[in-house]
Design brief:
binds S-adenosylmethionine; alpha/beta; globular; 7 strands; seven-stranded mixed sheet; 9 helices
């Protein structure tokens, strides 16, 4: 069952997190954001759109197909003059040709059907000026194989419910497939980089338990019943014990290609 990004219950689903230094460091190694026009497609609550502004982007166009997510972005960006909010589908945004220096898509492509991925990449290519840069961030099939640990909480989900790994495997592409599809679309100088990005720090287990409950509407956990989520939370509590300051991190892959 796909996530309903328009549902009122998913309001603020992608807010309340801070962009971490390791993300800024990697992006600034790949591109010079200063004075650039950036489209953040599948922007969610606009957390990363704001990060582009912070890095000096001249204008950030926040695109999402969900009115609820765009309302969250508007709330999060407080009418900042260099933020433009635009409803649109990643496959056909409605933005003009060659209007962006950078197109950024984080945690978007696993929501795009496999057979539509090249349409998504072609749309990004169309939006970019010549020499413009496409930056994609998502989890590959390799990124989701790491087992559970106090740092890699997501791994416990698949340790406890292996059938969810099968669902994840189907929607996560491999690194090589993405590289080949980017080449096929016409991108040049393609690179892929692994990123271990901090998600957040929980003061103690009870904070993590609340977060896991809240993830039901917006992650693979929406496949589980409330009872199954409770079982998972109890399992993780036994594994982690009474640890304080739990730092959760996620494995990601970041791709870059030039038009
Ligand atoms: C997992 S969230 C990521 C949000 C944000 N990029 C982040 O990393 O915090 C995925 C977002 O992509 C949006 N989305 C999914 N499919 C889309 C599509 N075909 N076109 C535009 N937005 C889409 C959803 O509404 C949601 O806001």
């Amino acid at each position: 069952m796909p996530i309903d990004f328009n549902a009122k219950k998913n309001r603020h689903a992608y807010l309340g997190r801070e962009v971490q230094q390791e993300w800024y460091d990697l992006i600034q190694k790949l591109v010079e954001p200063r004075d650039k026009e950036v489209a953040d497609i599948g922007c969610g609550g606009g957390i990363y759109s704001l990060a582009w502004v912070k890095m000096g982007a001249k204008k950030v166009t926040c695109v999402d197909f969900s009115q609820q997510m765009l309302a969250d972005t508007a709330e999060n960006t407080h009418g900042m003059p260099n933020i433009v909010i635009q409803k649109g589908d990643a496959l056909c945004t409605g933005l003009p040709d060659s209007c962006q220096d950078i197109v950024f898509e984080r945690a978007l492509i696993h929501h795009i059907a496999q057979e539509k991925r090249i349409t998504c990449f072609s749309e990004a290519h169309r939006l970019l000026r010549s020499g413009g840069i496409y930056i994609l961030q998502d989890r590959t099939v390799q990124d989701i194989q790491f087992p559970g640990s106090p740092e890699h909480i997501r791994g416990y989900i698949f340790d406890v419910y292996p059938h969810l790994r099968n669902i994840e495997n189907q929607r996560r592409p491999s690194n090589d497939v993405v590289i080949n599809e980017l080449k096929f679309t016409g991108f040049k100088q393609i690179k892929s980089i692994s990123l271990l990005e901090k998600r957040t720090t929980y003061k103690d287990f009870s904070q993590l338990a609340i977060d896991l409950q809240l993830r039901k509407g917006r992650s693979i956990l929406h496949e589980l019943s409330n009872e199954e989520i409770t079982y998972l939370i109890n399992y993780i509590e036994k594994e982690i014990g009474a640890k304080s300051d739990i730092i959760e991190k996620d494995f990601w892959t970041v791709w870059m290609g030039i038009k």
